[in-house]
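Figure S4 source data
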Amino acid sequence: MKNTNIDILLIEDSPHDAEMSLRALKKNKIANDIIHLTNGAQVLNFLFGLGEFEGRDVDNKPKLILLDLKMPKIDGIEVLQKIKQNESTKRIPVVVLTSSKENPDIQKCYDLGANSYLVKPVDFNSFIRSVTDSGMYWMLLNQLPY
């Protein structure tokens, strides 16, 4: 994989939700370089330069991770835990973007270090607005420590 700048790492297994998120971020010019991955194993391999991403420059970190919780292979909670426990990735802002309104999921994500927890709106326009607003804050207003 080419070592280009990475603005956003979008982790979403639903093709429909991923397409809507990508459309919202690109249409509103929030991010140019978005990488979309569909399962937790891919994410960990990407971030830590393992498996199919062996040799990738792991110092080239995303500025933001949008993380779905309900994913195949390794779920989002375990991915979040591994991101926040690792010295090289723990400062990357992680916004959980999921359909789960369950309090145990919300508590667990914040306990593990999630920077924000957003429940995906069912309504198309609300979904687009939610992704756009979150992207604008984290990509344009928030100051990163690196």
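Figure S5 source data
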Amino acid sequence: MSAGKHVAIAGATGAVGVEMLQCLEERNFPLASLKLLASARSKGKKMTFRGEELTVEELTPDSFKGVDIALFSAGSGISREFGPHAVRAGAVVVDNSSAFRMEAGVPLVVPEINPEDAPGHQGIIANPNCTTIVALMALYSLHRAWTVRSIVASSYQAVSGTGQAGIEELAAQNRALVAGEPIVAKVYSRQIASNCLPEIGGVVANGYTSEEMKMQNEGRKILHQPDLKASVTCVRVPVFRSHSVSVTADFERKPSVEEARRLIGAAAGVQVMDEREANRFPTPLDCTGKDDCLVGRIREDLVFPQGLSLWVVGDQVRKGAALNAVQIAELL
């Protein structure tokens, strides 16, 4: 390892943890050491990084001695239990779960949008929800130009958002459909293969789900826009990876489609794919494994006089989770 930071990944063997490892390597993150942490059942597993074989250690309260940055992607319960131990040991926690996102004193950061918030941490920096990240990556340059005041959105979320278990369930159900065998649903309440499930996160008192409320609540914090309103429907679709979001945004000032294309095309972390004559617009397969979010179907909205409608797709395992966390670590 070269001179740099002492880094630990908590949840290193999960889908996002593996992607974090890949992002650290691809971006040549300056490391003095790297510690891979996971549950007891993964202890001793070997993982390769920069041509070296690293051994996964069991995550314990004492795992963070000498660690500068701890990247957490092991669920909110693990973050709440072990995050404070990491902070007390002197590490800065970059947490990918929902555990601390809305807490006062915890910056909620998308590096292309609000990097200036990161230094205000008190030991923990939160990674936003993956769907929120994907949507705001498309909207931020437009927000700077015309100020977003409300969002109406529908998400089409891949099964990898549920982790490896979701991926395996869709694959197993696809095989069962082809073979004419019975469908077994364990991860999801109903069959996901050849189906769409319009509920992610559990319905709360107002009839929306917890996943749907994140775009409004987290969007307000990230954009420093306390009056932002968002009406969102989140749908799980039979796609393995990369989330898609249909977004209608209403602005304080009337936007221009051509200027919107120019602004999005000039923004960091997003690209325009909006070729009407060629019928070429972003799909999940276009984004999978890629850093940038892709934006298309940019058009004037027919309901809001000062609105724009667009379609944005992003790899939620990468930009929606692992890459965003590594970019936050880079800010540190």
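Residues 64 and 86 are 5 Å apart (CA to CA). The chain has three domains: 5-127+322-331, 132-158+201-316, 159-195.
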